[in-house]
């Protein structure tokens, strides 16, 4: 099942820089593993924002829920999830 997920990150202004760098590194490793596994199919930066648009290919809603909840930056994210299905005019 394909989902579009939009994530916006809001880091508290008082978070120490070392803590922020450590969470970002964990997030990068987590995101890159899911990309290598073919689950996180697209990851695009939204220009001018600390936000991304992503496409996930998962077995079901529960798999997506669990992996989003596992994001190290999850506590600092606003998230919007949209299910996708094939477009009848798509040539792919
Ligand atoms: O930077 C972001 O958009 C947040 C998050 C998503 C992947 C990742 O490495 O960080």
TrEMBL record:
Pathway: Aromatic compound metabolism; beta-ketoadipate pathway; 5-oxo-4,5-dihydro-2-furylacetate from catechol: step 3/3. GO terms for biological process: beta-ketoadipate pathway. Residues 1-89 form the Muconolactone isomerase domain. It catalyses: (S)-muconolactone = (4,5-dihydro-5-oxofuran-2-yl)-acetate. Its EC number is 5.3.3.4. Pfam families: MIase. Keywords: Aromatic hydrocarbons catabolism, Isomerase. It comes from the Bacteria. GO terms for molecular function: muconolactone delta-isomerase activity. Homodecamer. Belongs to the muconolactone Delta-isomerase family. This is Muconolactone Delta-isomerase. It comes from Marinomonas mediterranea (strain ATCC 700492 / JCM 21426 / NBRC 103028 / MMB-1).
């Amino acid at each position: 099942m394909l989902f579009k997920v939009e994530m916006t990150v809001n880091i508290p202004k008082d978070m120490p820089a070392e803590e922020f760098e450590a969470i970002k590194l964990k997030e990068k490793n987590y995101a890159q593993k899911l990309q290598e596994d073919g689950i996180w199919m697209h990851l695009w930066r939204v220009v001018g924002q600390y936000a991304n648009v992503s496409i996930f290919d998962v077995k079901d809603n529960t798999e997506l829920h669990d992996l989003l909840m596992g994001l190290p930056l999850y506590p600092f994210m606003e998230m919007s999830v949209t299910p996708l299905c094939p477009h009848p005019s798509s040539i792919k």
